[in-house]
Structures
1.
Amino acid sequence: MDTSYAIPTDRFARCIAASKRMRWDVETDVIRGRRFDRANKFLPDGLTLAGQLYFLSPDEKIYFSQVQGRTYANMFGLVERFIGAKVLELSRDHWLGDQVALEALIRFGDEELKHQALFRRIEALTSEVMPPGYRFDWDPNQIAATVLSKSSWAVLALTLHIELFTQFHYRESIRDDADLSELFQDVFMFHWKEECQHATVDELEWRRLDAGTSAEARDMAVDELIELVGAVDGIVQAQAFADDDYFAPTCGRDLSAFEADMVRQTPLEAYRFQYILSGARHPHFARTLAELTTKAQLGRVHDALTSLGAERLLAAA
Ligand SMILES: [Fe+2]
Ligand SMILES: [Fe+2]
């Protein structure tokens, strides 16, 4: 255990300054009275993997991206329930300590409440223009209870990974895709602006907790992180098939058996990339995890991630 940890107040102060500068409002900055237009994609092909469904018409590909985009917004609304609760729980450690760190965490929690409201709004707006029958049956409180039963070390690792992949998706593929809905792009532009600070706070808090964690407790936390990744994969699998159950009968034509099989497998592959692998492979996440774990522990995480790919191959066989 490293007991010499000193809270980096200046870094928390920079997060607060950026948070004040970026601050936005759901209605007056993001929505601005707009509605979704079914003519535009919600997510780029690089995230949805629509490119491998060469037999879909341009309009069918747009619809495919809208189904995945709707789930994308709902997934953030889901995970932000446990992220917000964890951040407020951690703020307790600073109540009578570093007041700058405390303010950074409180702002973070407040922003995640606003983001959940934004994603609920997006679900309402998409349901106005999309066919009935879409399902996203996860209870955010139930998921949060499962996640929050694990150690804070594991929860912060999962959270950092999520908040980094949000930024990666926006910067690398959502921001510059001219085919996307402007409203959908704006939602993720504004979200990205506040997530940058969140990822910094996640890392600082993860390192603070790590410094007070024994080798034995850390070893258990690594297993909990692997369990959490498995839980995310369980959600991803079920939602991918739920989204196919929605897309296939509402895409406007009967798909051949070959097409139907391809369409069914693609969201699972896309979601595993979106929600697990793009975060796990993010250089900043990978570096931080490597710094905080032994080679053997890191190997266990990598094996768990590799098995996701293996399952995919088995499912396709
Ligand atoms: Fe968020
Ligand atoms: Fe966040």
2.
Amino acid sequence: MAGTLRLPGFVNAHSHTFQRSLRGSAAGGDFWAWREAMLSEAERQTPHIIRSEYELTYREMLAAGYTAVGEFHYLGPAEALAAADAASATGIALVVLHVAYARGGLPRFRQSSVGEFIDQVEMLRNAGIGVGVAPHSVRACPADWLEEIGRYAVSEGLPLHVHADEQPKEIEECLAEHGCRPIELLARTGCLTERTTVVHATHADGAELDLLASSGATICVCPTTEADLGDGFLPTERTRKRSIPLCIGSDSNVRIDPFEELRELEGIARRQTGRRGVFSTEELYDFGRDVGARSLGLDAWPAIEIDLDHRSLGGVASKHVSAALLAGCGADVVVAG
Ligand SMILES: [Zn+2]
């Protein structure tokens, strides 16, 4: 065996690129303790820092086989332009998922009104940047913001990404404020359509999963981050039974490796069911590529080359290579571009 194998690139549907710098330095405590470290890292960001540091991380993503990324961005509009500059220097296909943030977080995350948020999105579109809208979460956006953003996304045909059901506390707060769970609130406010991607859905209950299935929405699962943050894991058997489309994201970027995300997803499913091959190799590749691209509204993104002489593929028959990549390889099998 020799040479290279050309494959479609992987699509990273959910990234907070600035969080890459926290790996190894924000250990201990729970999700909420980690969030404090994340907020101080967010406070440090400037367009200048983003322009240089995002370029390095986007190059890491390309080297790992991700050739498109959805940047779930809540650091401000000038910083979104800097992220787009960084991406175009590397050749990675970028969609800025511009975040609406009404309350909580840091002042720099917030807009004073939903109108200001939509003006920012329009500015990015006019700059020729691929965009989607991203109400951060039901924690950060009240119902009237969700209604307005849902309407705008539908009328403009834009992707809508939103975090939901990552942590039990968020669900308790939503029940207290609205008398329903986060994904139910998204449905009630017009934010759940076939262009919607719900990030995590870790603690979604059966009724919420039914809403995702009936609306045609996608779940973006981020297994290495969800493990790192102690979030929990996706109820894979229940999403599979409902045929809910899944895509993957590197999220906090503690790891940048699409093979590992997909292997973790299947590993979670095996641990939950006691069966192997809960998702087929073809399904897993579909999650890692086409479903992610659809979630970002992307039609085209670059291909990758696999090094067939890589030591981790030694002795693997060519008909087993694509399964072996998911079962037993890391991102270092990708030929550096
Ligand atoms: Zn996220």
3.
Amino acid sequence: MKTHAQAVVIGGGVIGCSILYHLTKLGWSDVVLLERNELTSGSTWHAAANIHGLHDSANISRLQHYTMSLYKQLEEETGQSCGVFQPGSLYLAQTEAREHQLRLQEAKAQLYGMNFSEISRERAEELHPLVNFDGIRCIMWEPEGGNVDPSGVTNAYAMGARQRGAEIHRFTPVTATTQKPDGTWVVETPKGNIETRWVINAAGLWGREVAKLAGIEMPLQPTEHQYFVTETIAEIDGMDRRLPSVADRDGEYYLRQEGKGLLIGAYERDMRFWAEDGTPLDFAHDLFPDDLERIMENVMRAMDRVPVAAEAGIKRVINGPMIWSPDSNVILGPVPELKNYFMCGGIIPGFSQSAGMGLMAAQWIVEGEMQYDMFAWDLARFGQWANDHDFVKAKVEDVYAHRFAIHYPNEEREAGRPLRTRPVYGMQKEMGAVFGLNYGWEHPQWFADEPGRKDTNGFTRQNWWGPVGEECRMLRERAGIIDISNFAKYRVKGPGAEDWLNAVFANIMPKSVGRSCLTPLISVRGGIAGDATVTRVAEDEFWVVSSGMAERYHKRFFDMVPLPEGTSFDSWTERMCGFNVAGPKSRELLARLTNASLDTGDFPFMRSQRIELAGVDCLALRVSFTGDLGWELHCATEDQAQLYAALLEAGKPLGAGPVGARALMSMRVEKGYGSWSREYSPEYWPHEVGLAGLCKMGKDFLHKAALEEVLEKTPREDLVLIHIDEAAVTASNADATGGEPIFCKGKPVGRVTSGTYGYSVGMSLALGYVRHGAAAPGDEVSVMVLGQPHKARILHEPPFDPEGEKLRA
Ligand SMILES: Cc1cc2nc3c(=O)[nH]c(=O)nc-3n(C[C@H](O)[C@H](O)[C@H](O)COP(=O)(O)OP(=O)(O)OC[C@H]3O[C@@H](n4cnc5c(N)ncnc54)[C@H](O)[C@@H]3O)c2cc1C
């Protein structure tokens, strides 16, 4: 075994082998994979290994598509069979909501060049004569759907990696990972140690245990999962072709041909956790005792749909472990608190995603960043708060039991909550707040007319649509108080604060105390890694406000620039809270609580002051994401309740009150403002999102060279604001929500990133990207709301206050 390597992958399941393969494909041949047993000895060997291309997330769909297309190539490249069967998949909708979901996916498939389209019942019966299609509202057909051989795929990746120089050592358990002061890692095994730059934890079921070797926790929890295979079924035996798989998600089971019988599996409501206190080290090619009773309800539904299954005997039952994250997406990426430690664990659809995941991991390690915005996979979407054992268990139980449920736009699942609350949580609850989970915090989405109300869910307008409109109108006509404690807040202090911020961010930091600037943060490939408002609050002190959910993600970037001696950078997100008081009467509201002059002459737009409001010391910034006259007020967390009570009291006579996050979303879209993770992401270039003017190329800053390179290129896409025809949205009772394809002259040209109703302008609106040159302001386009064409037009300017007069009033 070699003693030095560029990277060591721990774990020889399908994911570890795919990462190893993709590292070699990107040119790293000096890489090693260590497996404690045979390859595939975790979840991999016993998987049903179904493969699907379409996912609600466009980028995950792209990567699943890549994965499905790689298997055949891998076979050719290595000579190792991957056991690929692609007889196609039939997707069935039993409900209106499922039909909306499938039609939306059909529209997305056109945009991304994938095969997924509606077929008639007659055609479906030809494709799968054993299915009873009664009660099915629509049927979609994915010709590439199917399944693979889990061991074949894993070994093909291994072989492909070996062909490019990688080493694989089986029966070589990693027993310790320690980092030396120079940042290199020592990976210990009974067969000797390897020194390496990168450690990659792909230990699957043992991901938690391997993470602990490096002193870190991972929010992961294994469960049992079952499927069974029937004896030969005569009707299948008599066929000269393989049957398509059946994705009847409303029935909550999966079903496909296996041999000459059927394979049926289910994610049951009465699920079972496994190995809560740690995965046993002696577990390998093992299974649990069968417990088919637990999945019987689901299986009965499968038998109703495919009646021959009811007649067949059971040949084999698999009850094996799989390991889950709190939202069922992979925990992927470099751990921000460690140097060069990469995690990739908690993967459920490993065979649909293995290649995409291996490619993303390898790009991140070798090239410093992935080509796509994969925040949905990035482990930084969870903070340390997510390691709470009860929270993880509650979430995993929920995501397991609802594996095939539709996840609606704006859906907020309740399991495991509340986890993190701020002092005004109780007050907000009393006022009817309906909360969402925001980086672990309970955050008001909207205010119902009585406490205890909950969201209804669907693709169409839901119970919150009307009340959110009231909140918007209240703010636009009078004033509103928005809790913005969910923003991330940082304090940078010391003699080197200005230099450090200038070295991190692309804009020039404010020169005088009390001034603020908006600034992009540039990613490794020259895209938008973030946007922030930076305020100079003292000669040597700056206040940075940015996206709350990106706090751990941004830490990776902040850590790339060393802090000067004597200068500190601290997150104040927990110790400070905030409110945005906005609307034409916001000045009058605040004037009731402070002696400070809020007149424009004394307190202009983009300035800040320390003021006392109702006896509470606040940092007041004259900015507002609503696009209206307004102030952001930041106070100590212990003063939050006092300030909130005073603001609400002062607002009452003016007809002002609390406003939630969904109203803020609507108002910022009326103004055409982008938001991180929707319009702003590392995938987009500053000149595609209208932020190039904020990048000051006359100074040095993080990833400036990458930005210079992209600025030379023509934008690939343009961010546009779209007005969707009123009659169309009234007929479908739905607005865009994000992800809907945009068509122009019958051709797919882009997709929506944020969609909402603009209540104060009376327009259904969508922000989105269209291919550069394919459509321009004034052009008629079609937005696929609910997967159906909705007439729309690209706007020349935002419909609310295009001149910014209200903002500066
Ligand atoms: C019953 C069942 C059915 C499934 N069906 C499907 C399906 O239809 N489609 C699909 O896409 N997915 C399916 N899956 C999920 C799929 O199996 C997983 O997504 C995938 O196998 C995860 O692979 P992995 O490489 O991350 O982890 P694992 O397969 O768990 O591999 C981890 C490897 O790391 C090794 N290891 C651990 N600790 C150490 C150490 N200290 N040193 C060295 N090596 C170590 C282990 O021995 C193991 O080989 C199914 C899972 C189950 C349980």
